[in-house]
Amino acid sequence: MPVLVFDLTGPFAHYKKIFATTTALTYPIPPKSSLYGLFAAILGLEKEGNNYLNSFREGSCRVAIRLMRPVAVQRLTINLRPSFGALRGTENRKPTLMEFVDRPHYRIYFTHRDEELYGKLKDLLERGQSFYTPTLGIANLIGQITYVGEGKAESSREEDIDSVLPKRALEKLLPPPPGRNTRLMEVGQYAVEMLPSRDVTVRENIVLDRGGLPIAARVTDAYRITGLSENADRVLFF
């Protein structure tokens, strides 16, 4: 299975948690549904009516996410407005303490059943181009995309996983090797699949190591990503 690999970085990221219409809290990694928006921005897919989501119907696209640096969070005060457009003197702005991921660095692994879409994304990544500006969750958090290359995913029974783990694929956590101080956390209610109506059809709990270290675990559906370096990345797609 061919896989495109690229790094997503920036000064800050904010991926609003989905269990509230307004919240200052962020997920530590991008939900899969947010990555669909990122892929669509690179490809220039139609945003009107969320039509781009038709290109990412459930089962057509699989991704894996690896933390390339430890998760760090900052809380900054932001002035929120009740409306869009030009600022009116009668508007009350609400100072709100918001949570941001500080200097995020994610490695994204992408594969898709549509060979034409896959090939177009590969071409744009190779040329360092994007139709729309990539962001890290919200519009003013500009992201930087660095293409790593194209690898090959080979099914494996790895027990040391570099990527985050969807909990449904986790059979058993194993003792970490001597000297590895893991800081595991489970984050719930990730939006995984979404319709153009923005109804979430699949949610998932994600297990990750806050330090970005590999997770010792017995899992289902693990893959080795070969062809990029001597040390193959070990990931789970979802």
Automatic annotation (TrEMBL):
One Pfam family this sequence matches: Cas_Cas5d
Organism this protein belongs to: Neolewinella maritima
Name of the protein this chain belongs to: Type I-B CRISPR-associated protein Cas5
Plastid recorded as keyword: no
Keyword Phosphoprotein recorded: no
Keywords: Antiviral defense
Leader sequence residues: none
